[in-house]
Amino acid sequence: MSKFLTLLFILLTTLVAEQKPNFIIILTDDQGYADLSCFGSETIKTPHIDSLAKSGIKLTSFYSASSVCTPSRAALLTGRMPKRTGMTNVLFPRSKNGLNPEEVTIAEMLKNKGYDTALIGKWHLGHQKKFMPMNHGFDYFYGMPYSNDMSISKEFEISSDLILNDGCTREEMENDRKNYIAQYKKLKNKMPMLRGNTIIEYPVDQRTITRKYTDEAVKFIKAKKDKPFFLYLAHTMPHKPLFVEDDRKGTSKGGIYGDIIEHIDWSVGEVIKTLKANGNFENTFILYTSDNGCDYNAGGSSGPLKGRKFNTWEGGQRVPAIISYPPKFDGGKTIEGMTSSLDIFQTVANLSSTEIPTDRVYDGYNLTDYLKGKVEVSPRNEFYYYYANSGSIDGVRVGDWKYILRGNFFFRTKQKFKPRLFNLKDDIGETTNLINQFPEKARELKKMMEEFDKSILNN
Is 0.85 surpassed by the pTM of this model? Predict the structure, then answer.
């Protein structure tokens, strides 16, 4: 009997070891560094996300590759700097470009490994059919094609079961599709909800989208109880304009912005609850983060960081991040070493035992051993800052040192900008310019920054 039990234990252990991990990326839109309880918020309560942080790993120096939507999302999914993929600017309904189908996304990489893949939420990497999620490795897409302050576009098909809201008729919707460029200002914030490339609701009631995304995500997870999956849950909120369901208004001390974050926290709780009910939580890698810093006048907070969305100050690109994967990573710890959304592609590849393409340059690092605690120092010791909506390099961080040219996106002002040098270990708020005390360090970082930028042109 003892031999039988021993063999059974070995068999079960082997099966667990060979089980493919699931992957979930939960991405919010324009959420500030300090907009979670576990990242210092005193007005926004996020118990489910806090719980994930307590059982997982909190990353306090995690960087988005850009301080605006399109470039940051391209980098997260491909592991490549936006300048390499050509996604340096925010896309609009009038835009004709998108993420090149030749780029390999996390979804495509995992799909080729036998995973079922889904994008629920915001895409924003091109709305022409050849650029849409199904041409980038996703089995299906439910969500919105770009930011919620935009409009409809003529490229989308229309469902025979179309839901029309706000008294809109089908004729009016057709007119909006035809005239969306000429009437752009009039149509702002009138967004379509898509399934695949097809409009299923117009204009979508934006108060309901967080719940709708969550319901769809729960349905997807339940259906994949016995099949490895990748879920990219990309929330539209808290991007402006701000919307939340009526019964959630006024429930947070953080105003409507706080109401929205707490609604997203509820969503995270539903995802975790479903994973646990399915018996999949232990075998699921979860990343929670934001695409960039909080927007101006939206209600979010950068906490101790300077700057917000559009900036190359820390508040524009250093974002809250939590990773949970119980079988591999001991939870309950905080990692201060530098990490980035650029590193997720390589890390997912390693955890899924997937070979990455060798015909292109990647800008990320495999964080697996660092997250496991096998090595004490992050493989990332540098991070390059690029100006929002221009593709122009603006700074570099190496270790604790940061060199920056401007920092502020609004460079058309008459203010004269001077290069700055900061030691982020001592001055996280970027208040004291040390360039006169350490001119050699500034020259060293400037040269490094310029050489890296030139190298991208050849790769």
Answer: yes
CB 113 within 8 A of CB 227: no
Per annotation, catalytic residue among 38, 48, 124, 136: 124
193 pairs with which residues across the strands? 201
Of the chain, the end-to-end C-alpha distance in Å amounts to 61
Give the list of residues 6+ apart from residue 315 with CB closer than 8 angstroms, or none. Answer: 32, 33, 293, 294, 302, 305, 306, 307, 308
Residues linked to residue 338 through DSSP beta bridges, in sequence order: none
Is the domain defined by 20-381 classed in CATH 3.40.720.10?
yes
**Domain range summary for the chain, segments of one domain joined by +:** 20-381, 392-456
**In DSSP terms, which residues pair with 286 in a beta bridge?**
24, 324
Give the Cα-Cα-Cα angle 293, 298, 304 (nearest 5 degrees). 45
Active-site choice (38, 48, 69, 235): 69
Give the model confidence (pLDDT) of 338-377 as tens digits. Answer: 999 999 999 999 999 999 999 999 999 999 999 999 999 9
The answer to whether domain 392-456 has CATH 3.30.70.260 is no
**Phi-psi sector, 161: left (phi>0), alpha (psi -120 to 50), beta:** alpha
Helices 47-55 and 255-278 meet at what angle, rounded to 10? 50
How far is Cα 278 from Cα 298, in angstroms, rounded to an integer?
A: 37
Look at residue 249 and give its three-state secondary structure: coil
Torsion of CA 320, 113, 349, 388, to 10 degrees: -50
124 as an active site residue: the answer is yes
Hey, how many other C-beta atoms are within 10 angstroms of the C-beta on 283?
17
User: pLDDT (tens digit, 9 = 90+) per residue, 386-403?
Assistant: 988 888 999 999 999 999
- Give the E-state strand segments of 268-378 in sequence order: 284-290, 318-324, 333-335, 339-340
Catalytic residue status for 38: no
Cβ neighbours around 306 below 10 Å, total: 17
Q: Cα–Cα–Cα angle for 286, 100, 96, nearest 5°? A: 115
User: Are 383 and 396 contacting, i.e. CB atoms less than 8 angstroms apart?
Assistant: yes
| Nearest in space to 371 (alpha carbons), one of 59, 80, 61 | 59
